[in-house]
Write a structure and sequence with these properties.
The protein contains eleven helices and 15 strands. With 340 residues, it is an alpha/beta fold.
Length: 340
């Protein structure tokens, strides 16, 4: 088993990393660096609670997971790699392209894995969309809309509203949407960004819309915090059919409520959220959502460490996503489309 340490026990550590590491047989959840010892031991009584320095110095830890505030990701990941440990970094992988490229180069030099936690590749709705695209039932997709809307008018805790800490909705939800678009459609030719601060008193972006250009195809990525009624999570428009899908993958809220990733049906979506396929002739059908399973990410990490093979999400993928986000910010400032 690969002894694994998690740095951070906020939402990322609580709902994603610790329970996922614990759910993959090839990994051992050995230690968590946090000040929330009581909260950890409620769920993992045998896991050591420590601090980041001690965890990074522990020679028995082979894999380190970094799930801390955004501006600490790169320094902690660099220290883990320099200590000879593989590393998984929660999104964003880095707060800029240059730091992301430096981490990838360091991991390559050390012969180690530096992977981004793009768990949304294992969302049930994403798996469903990819299956529909592979089937050809939509025809040629001319417009794809990927959106993630919330109604959260209140400002968040201080560090999440600090521009200097790499905060904002583009850094929060942008990595997931950008990565999903790149997985479905590949590298775009150009990027156009519209980014705004819409909430009163806000200091970081809380709305964005990014358009990716692929010849005649357009892929729109958008997220905001002032949507009482969310728009479709996925809405694909093809020459043969459209597909519309509302709702979010259920794994995160179920685990936050006490479920385990190993529980039967934890990744099964309620039927009322299944998407609708509408053909050009006007006929339609409900498309059941594939079961999501975030364990696929960490199973892939364990396999890559054991075999020396590629990570399920290579660091290079994360750097390309960062490049798209940086270009979107530049485009928003200049008001024009920019080539990638």
């Amino acid at each position: 088993m690969i002894r694994t340490g998690v740095i951070g026990y906020g939402l990322g550590g609580l709902a994603f990393h610790a329970p996922l590491v614990d759910a993959v047989p090839e990994l051992e959840l050995a230690a968590i660096a946090t000040s929330r010892a009581d909260q950890v031991h409620e769920r993992y009584p045998d896991v050591a609670v420590t601090n980041a320095d001690a965890l990074l110095a522990d020679p028995s830890i082979e894999l380190v997971v970094v799930t801390t505030p955004n501006d600490t990701h790169v320094p902690l990941a660099r220290r883990a790699l320099e200590a000879g440990k593989h590393v998984v970094i929660d999104k964003p992988f880095a707060t800029n392209v240059a730091d992301g490229e430096a981490l990838v180069a360091l991991a390559r030099e050390k012969g180690l894995i530096a992977s981004a936690f793009h768990n949304r590749r294992w969302d049930g709705d994403f798996l469903t969309v990819r299956k529909l695209l592979d089937s050809g039932v939509l025809g040629e997709v001319i417009l794809a809309e990927l959106r993630w809307d919330r109604f959260r008018p209140a400002l968040a805790q201080a560090w999440k509203e600090d521009p200097e800490a790499g905060a904002g909705i583009l850094a929060d939800l942008g990595p997931h949407l950008i990565d999903q678009a790149l997985q479905l459609f590949g590298r775009p030719e150009a990027v156009y960004g519209d980014i705004a601060v819409q909430r009163e008193g806000g200091r970081t972006d809380d709305y964005f819309e990014i358009t990716l250009f692929y010849g005649e195809r357009r892929v729109t990525l958008s997220a905001g915090r002032l949507f009482v009624t969310p728009r479709p999570r996925f809405w694909l428009h093809g020459t043969k059919a459209d597909f519309a899908k509302h709702g979010l993958d259920p794994q995160e809220p179920r685990v936050k409520d006490g479920a385990c990733y190993t529980d039967p049906g934890v990744g099964d979506e309620e039927a009322r959220f299944h998407g609708t396929l509408t053909r050009a002739d006007g006929s339609s059908e409900i498309v059941p959502t594939e079961a999501g399973d975030y364990r696929g990410f960490y199973a892939g990490i364990a396999r890559a460490i054991a075999t020396g093979g590629p990570a399920p999400v290579p660091g290079e993928d994360a750097v390309l996503g960062l490049r798209v986000a940086e270009l979107a910010r530049e485009s928003a400032r200049e008001g024009r489309r920019l080539s990638l």
